[in-house]
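Consider this:
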Amino acid sequence: MIPSIVCIGGANIDRKLRSREALTMGSSNPAVQLEAFGGVARNVAENLARLGLPTRLITAVGDDAAGRALLAHAAEAGLSSDGSLLAPGEPTGSYTAVLDAGGQMLLALAAMPLADRLTPDFLRDCALPAEATLVLDLNLPAASIAALLARAREAGLAVIAVAVSEPKMARLPADLHGLQCLILNRGELRALLPGAADDEARLADLQRRGLRQIVVTAGGSGLLCSEAGQAAQQLPAPPVATIVDVTGAGDALAAGICASLTRLPLASACRVGLELAALTLQTTATVHPGLSPAWLAEHLEAHHP
């Protein structure tokens, strides 16, 4: 039986403005605008649902047209949003990314105050399956992250945390026991432990605090994965001939890891994640529309030890 996955965190409307030519700062630039449903927890959850995994999203949206459309889209993708918060009189969050002509992100602005409504009291009333993997994004309040880790330790649930930005790294608690895996980029790792001598010391510190597995992403350079008691491994990113849009690629990588980690060793799960990210880079969609259970089965088999 495939264990269910519960993703808890942010959901919003993504607005992507891509310049038609080289940007001129301080001036108006011609651009193309795209809108999609986004948010780290939401993106990870949609990837997982399209890969055929039983997935539930717990998030907060406004009781507005955007929020209702977001929840309807989740249902169409096979994603349950049972237990999510619908806030009357509040706008659904937004994430606006400015991309250069090559599709690389230059600047992003996130307006996601509703995630602060996912408090420990609210989440306490959300029933969780007896056997599940929890995927948390760090849009959640610090108190909620700590409470969910404590709840997972008591229930024996696996927890994977996905970073969202450098400023929000401070939301992780000092005690990381109960957290199976943390997925973040190099800048977020350094923001989490700014006083450490180097990245090797940072990884060792996190493992002393109870974290079992760490994945440090580096864009086109691949990633570093580290497991307590084992040597860290550097994995290259698959080649991508043409990058269409980077938005959502990091969340796809996290989803590939989450989908594989119960069935593959960490390094093999990371390879699945890298391949899912490479696929996502080749589409304007935040979540690749061609994902399927067959894609996951093929890649799990390819990377099975």
Q: What stands out?
A: Residues 102 and 244 are 7 Å apart (CA to CA). The chain has nine helices and 14 strands.
